[in-house]
Each structure stands twice: as structure tokens, then as C-alpha cells.
UniProtKB/TrEMBL annotation:
One of its GO terms (molecular function) is catalytic activity. It comes from the Bacteria. This is MOSC domain-containing protein YiiM. Residues 27-162 form the MOSC domain. InterPro entries: Benzoxazolinone_Detox_Enz (IPR052353), MoCF_Sase_C (IPR005302), Pyrv_Knase-like_insert_dom_sf (IPR011037). SUPFAM superfamilies: PK beta-barrel domain-like.
């Protein structure tokens, strides 16, 4: 498992939200990039109401899922097109557990928080009608990450899963149709979930 590219915003481009601009246009960076608690050095967030913050410090997307989309759409899905900061190779992001911890390179550690929820900016970026619904239906969302240990990362760095919490709820399940009983077990596991995931898990668990 390794990091293929590290991507930060190339330039702010027009977007469909009231902010007027979006930082979704990410491009690969040479050398090593500093990782802080709020993300990558040189990156930015325009819609701070809905994006960014410690629990969305980084967005990771798997090369395997990008290749699947490339075949599905009959077009290239270059790294950064989906607005991801990290493009990974050999890592099952959809199957990652909520609260799972990865080490990237020698010193950076990140925690899987929750799946990426597609928005109108993403649909505008892709230029595909009903893209939000289609992206959701296919269940390959990528994941937002919280930075636990800062440092630098670069293309080619190894990725190691160093902790798996004591539950079975994955990124893909949360993105799709989470089971109430499994969500309750996740809450009971004592895993570090973050406020947004705890709120969601409680709502789903209450349906049981």
C-alpha cells in the first residue's frame, strides 16, 4: 500500500455555491508536503461551512476506484480530479473501518473519519447530469481523514494500517445503508468516532 500523489489546490475556480469559488481543483505536488492538523500546506477551503476542519483535514481516494470510474465513464480520472488530497494504491478505502488509523511515510498518522458526501460543487466539476446520485449509487466514496500526527508526506510513501477499532462498520456501509444494530455496536465499541459520526450513528441506531 502506498501513496501515489499528494494534491493541493492549483487555483480557485468558479463554483456553483454562494462562495463563488471552489478549491476542488487539486494537482500533484513534487517533493514532500507538510501535513498539519487542518490539512496540507498550500491547500485551501472556500466553503468553510460544509468543508474543512480537523475531521475533514484530508480527503483520500483509491486509484483502484478511480480506474473503475475511468472505465465506467470512458474518460481519464487524473489524480486530483475528484478534489482528493491523497491518491492511494493498494488500499481498500471503501472497506476501511470508521476510526481506523493509517501511518503514511515515516511519521504522519491519520484516522478515517467518514465517507465523502458528494455535493453540487462535485457535480459541477464533473459536468455530468445527476452525478451526485450516480456517485452515491456506485458506493466508491473515498474517505475524509483526521490528522493525528503531523509531519511530511510525498508520492511513493508507504501506507500502513496500524489500528483497527473493535467494530465492523466500514466507510462503504456508512455511505450506503448502515445497519442500526451494527451502528449501535460501533457506538458501544469505544472507538474514536468524532461528533458528526456519533450523531449519525445515534440516528441510525434509533431505527432499530
Amino acid at each position: 500500500m502506498r501513496l501515489l500523489t499528494v494534491n493541493v489546490v492549483e487555483e480557485l475556480i468558479p463554483g456553483p455555491k454562494e462562495t463563488g469559488l471552489t478549491a476542488i481543483d487539486k494537482r500533484p505536488q513534487p517533493g514532500r508536503v507538510q501535513v498539519g492538523e487542518l490539512g496540507l500546506a498550500g491547500d485551501s477551503v472556500c466553503d468553510t461551512k460544509n468543508h474543512g476542519g480537523p475531521d475533514q483535514a484530508l480527503y483520500a481516494y483509491a486509484e483502484e476506484d478511480a480506474q473503475w470510474w475511468s472505465a465506467e465513464l470512458d474518460r481519464s480520472i487524473p489524480t486530483g480530479l475528484f478534489g482528493e488530497n491523497l491518491r492511494t494504491d493498494g488500499l481498500d478505502i471503501t472497506g476501511a473501518l470508521i476510526g481506523e488509523v493509517w501511518r503514511i511515510g515515516p511519521d504522519v498518522e491519520v484516522m478515517v473519519r467518514y465517507p465523502r458526501i458528494p455535493c453540487v460543487t462535485f457535480e459541477h466539476r464533473m459536468g455530468i447530469p445527476r452525478w451526485i446520485k450516480r456517485f452515491h449509487r456506485e458506493g466508491r466514496p473515498g474517505a475524509y481523514l483526521k490528522v493525528l500526527k503531523t509531519g511530511t508526506i510525498g508520492a511513493g510513501d508507504p501506507i500502513e494500517i496500524i489500528h483497527r477499532p473493535a467494530h465492523e462498520v466500514t466507510v462503504g456501509e456508512v455511505f450506503g445503508s448502515p445497519d442500526p444494530a451494527r451502528m449501535q455496536r460501533m457506538l458501544d465499541s469505544g472507538a474514536d468516532l468524532g461528533d458528526e459520526m456519533i450523531e449519525l450513528a445515534r440516528r441510525v441506531a434509533a431505527r432499530a
